[in-house]
């Protein structure tokens, strides 16, 4: 990814226990992003959420659900993310789980490997 390219961020919201083909859904998406040659992906775990079902998901001991939210952020140029979003949609449809996918344009100021990875 070049910092002068038009870049964006793809955000994918799923549950931490969502699976596809016996694998955790967020892992499947990250590995597919890497295989697609995308610049980078990060997974965040939330502490509380609700979505389309309006069910509260929390890590409290006595809560009805402990399926915490997971957010996958993938950054690259807009064209690559546009192509990859189609793959994400197919993966999520195949998992038969709910979720949310968003896209935003952004400006990348710095993107380079650290010395450890040179």
Pick out its properties.
2 helices; four-stranded antiparallel sheet; two-stranded antiparallel sheet; 8 strands; 118 residues; alpha+beta
Q: What's the arrangement of secondary structure elements?
A:
Blueprint: E1 7-15, E2 19-20, E3 23-24, H1 25-35, E4 40-45, E5 48-49, E6 57-58, E7 69-77, H2 78-95, E8 100-106
Antiparallel strand pairs: 1-7, 1-8, 2-3, 4-7, 5-6
Instruction: State which percent range the strand residues make up.
Output: 25-35%
- Strands of the largest sheet, in order across it? 4-7-1-8
Average pLDDT figure? 85
The largest sheet is:
4 strands, antiparallel
Q: Count the beta strands.
A: 8
Question: Based on CA inertia axes, which overall geometry fits?
Answer: globular
What is the number of helices? 2
Give the SSE string. Answer: EEEHEEEEHE
Distance between the termini: 16 Å
Helix content: 10-25%
Poorly predicted runs of 5 or more residues: none
Classification by helices and strands? alpha+beta
The Cα radius of gyration reads: 16 Å
Brief characterization of the structure:
With 118 residues, the chain is an alpha+beta fold. The protein has helices spanning 25-35, 78-95, and strands at 7-15, 19-20, 23-24, 40-45, 48-49, 57-58, 69-77, 100-106. A 4-stranded antiparallel β-sheet has the order 4-7-1-8, with helices on one face.
Describe the structure.
The chain has 118 residues and is of the alpha+beta class. The chain contains 2 helices and 8 strands, in the order E-E-E-H-E-E-E-E-H-E. The chain has helices spanning 25-35, 78-95; strands spanning 7-15, 19-20, 23-24, 40-45, 48-49, 57-58, 69-77, 100-106. Strands 4-7-1-8 form a 4-stranded antiparallel beta sheet, covered by helices on one side. Strands 2-3 form a two-stranded antiparallel ribbon. A hairpin with a 7-residue loop joins strand 5 (48-49) and strand 6.
């Amino acid at each position: 990814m070049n910092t002068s390219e038009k870049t964006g961020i793809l955000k994918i919201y799923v549950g931490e226990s969502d699976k596809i083909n016996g694998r955790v859904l967020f892992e499947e998406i990250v590995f597919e992003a890497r295989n697609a040659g995308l610049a980078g992906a990060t997974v965040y775990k939330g502490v509380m959420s609700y979505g389309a079902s309006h069910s509260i998901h929390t890590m409290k001991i006595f809560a009805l659900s402990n399926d915490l939210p997971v957010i996958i952020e993938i950054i690259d140029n807009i064209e690559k993310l546009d192509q990859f979003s189609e793959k994400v949609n197919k993966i999520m449809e195949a998992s038969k789980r709910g979720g949310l996918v968003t896209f935003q344009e952004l400006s990348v100021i710095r993107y380079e490997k650290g010395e450890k990875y040179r």
